[in-house]
UniProtKB/TrEMBL annotation:
<keyword id="KW-0812">Transmembrane</keyword>
<feature type="transmembrane region" description="Helical">
    <location>
        <begin position="31"/>
        <end position="49"/>
    </location>
</feature>
<keyword id="KW-1003">Cell membrane</keyword>
<dbReference type="GO" id="GO:0005886">
    <property type="term" value="C:plasma membrane"/>
</dbReference>
<protein>
    <recommendedName>
        <fullName>TVP38/TMEM64 family membrane protein</fullName>
    </recommendedName>
</protein>
<feature type="transmembrane region" description="Helical">
    <location>
        <begin position="69"/>
        <end position="92"/>
    </location>
</feature>
<feature type="transmembrane region" description="Helical">
    <location>
        <begin position="176"/>
        <end position="201"/>
    </location>
</feature>
<feature type="domain" description="VTT">
    <location>
        <begin position="83"/>
        <end position="199"/>
    </location>
</feature>
<dbReference type="InterPro" id="IPR032816">
    <property type="entry name" value="VTT_dom"/>
</dbReference>
<comment type="similarity">
    <text>Belongs to the TVP38/TMEM64 family.</text>
</comment>
<keyword id="KW-0472">Membrane</keyword>
<dbReference type="InterPro" id="IPR015414">
    <property type="entry name" value="TMEM64"/>
</dbReference>
<feature type="transmembrane region" description="Helical">
    <location>
        <begin position="207"/>
        <end position="226"/>
    </location>
</feature>
<keyword id="KW-1133">Transmembrane helix</keyword>
<dbReference type="Pfam" id="PF09335">
    <property type="entry name" value="VTT_dom"/>
</dbReference>
<feature type="transmembrane region" description="Helical">
    <location>
        <begin position="148"/>
        <end position="169"/>
    </location>
</feature>
<feature type="transmembrane region" description="Helical">
    <location>
        <begin position="99"/>
        <end position="120"/>
    </location>
</feature>
Length: 242
């Protein structure tokens, strides 16, 4: 009986040590992924910054038939906040027209959003002091509950850096499906506007009414869809405010 108890205790100790070892290995792996992701993003940022004066002329001189290369370059440029993507989208509008250039801009910016999300999702969340952590947790709870709306509004406001939304969504691991869906929908009007600006710059058109109509119609449609899909959000907001 005594031998059985000794063996049982030894098994428990071995199991505990094994679990601790796995936890330590997981922490080391997550730290390695975090460091590797950070190095990769910083290296990409530095590379784009160093080549910023050469990339746009090169992109502009590429033939429209080289669309895979153009799409790849556009997506890479959209990943880092160095060259305003409005300029890139304008070039795409000149090459492919309003609808073709707008569609390629949406695809490129969405690819950039997905890749950046994965890069930032590779790391753990940072540790904060209790007061800061409490405030961030409250904010993140609101964002987590309304991920689609949060990302959608951010995408439709051109003055909010896309890289900031991408990094935040990945770092705090927002719902990936809602994040991508809101990114695609939110990018459509903005990219069409940027493509239109590029076409207008070449043609010399001064008619900006289509831009306003695109925004107004799209925002109306989004509001109708949102009110149907999320009918309880307004009530939730009122409860939170009370």
């Amino acid at each position: 009986m005594l031998g059985f108890l000794q063996n049982f205790c030894a098994d428990i100790e071995n199991t505990t040590a094994h679990i601790k070892g796995r936890r330590e290995a997981t922490k080391e792996l997550m730290l390695t992924r975090k460091i590797a992701a950070g190095i990769f993003y910083l290296a990409l940022l530095g590379l784009i910054y160093a080549l910023r004066d050469k990339l746009l002329p090169w992109l502009d001189n590429l033939a429209p038939g080289s669309w895979p290369i153009i799409l790849f370059i556009s997506a890479v440029l959209a990943m880092v906040p160095v060259i305003p993507f409005m300029v890139v989208s304008g070039i795409l509008g000149i090459k492919y027209g309003i609808w073709g250039g707008g569609a390629m801009s949406v695809v490129a910016s969405t690819l950039a959003a997905v890749l950046t999300y994965w890069i930032f999702a590779a790391g753990d969340r940072a540790n904060y002091n209790p007061g800061t952590r409490h405030r961030l947790e409250i904010w993140n709870e609101h964002v987590q509950q309304r991920t689609f709306l949060f990302v959608l509004i951010g995408r439709m406001l051109p003055f909010i850096p896309a890289a900031l939304i991408n990094g935040y969504a990945g770092w705090f691991k927002l719902s990936f499906i809602q994040y991508v869906s809101a990114t695609i929908l939110g990018k459509i009007p903005t990219m069409l506007v940027f493509a239109y600006v590029g076409v207008s710059a070449v043609s010399g058109s001064q008619y900006w009414l289509p831009i306003l109509l695109i925004y107004a119609v799209f925002l109306s449609v989004v509001y109708l869809i949102y009110s149907r899909l999320f009918p309880n959000v307004r009530g939730t907001l009122r409860v939170d405010n009370e």
